[in-house]
Amino acid sequence: MTQPTPNPRPLRPLPALIFMSRWLQLPLYLGLILAQCVYVFHFWVELKDLIGAALGNEAALQHIFAAVAVPGAPVPNKLNETTIMLVVLGLIDVVMISNLLIMVIIGGYETFVSRLDLDGHPDQPEWLSHVNASVLKTKLAMAIVGISSIHLLKTFINASAYDEKVLVAQTVIHVVFLLSAMAIAYTDRITSVTHQESKSH
């Protein structure tokens, strides 16, 4: 028969105050939820304009052209495959940033503020069952690499409108993001192996 878990002893006033200070992060996560709402609104505005442009709505068409136009490059005058691709990449970019926000909101709250008690919930994210500060940091780094990839692809599609230095600089920045994510993942792997070995001794 399992023994009941003893009640934790109450904290002294100063440690209790310091521990309670974690709730100061709650307004930050609520703010990120509002930012998520802004991204959802932006996504549907862009999607509505894309559908309207495909159906021949002139105002939606002009908005799409303005959204994909590159400074110094000629503005498109018709809805072609490249224009549609740029708009869709913009929508994917919004979705990936939204995913990043979800990871920060849910994972950050679970790791740094309070448990969500989602064990056994059918909609519990797979990654949340083993989330900690290191795992969250690795997943955020990979999400940033994905977002950078979308931006780099959009730049390469309009490569003729950019200076060569801009293309090289964006490529170098993306490679730095990629190497940073790999370094974080490798460091996390070493830390996990070391932790498991120390527990086995």
Automatic annotation (TrEMBL):
InterPro entries: UPF0114, UPF0114_bac. It comes from Duganella qianjiadongensis. This is UPF0114 protein GTP27_11355. The chain crosses the membrane at residues 26-45, 84-106, 140-161, 167-186. The lineage of its organism: Bacteria, Pseudomonadati, Pseudomonadota, Betaproteobacteria, Burkholderiales. It holds the Pfam family UPF0114. It is a multi-pass membrane protein. Keywords: Cell membrane, Membrane, Transmembrane, Transmembrane helix. The keyword Metal-binding does not apply. It comes from the Bacteria. Belongs to the UPF0114 family. It is found in: Cell membrane.
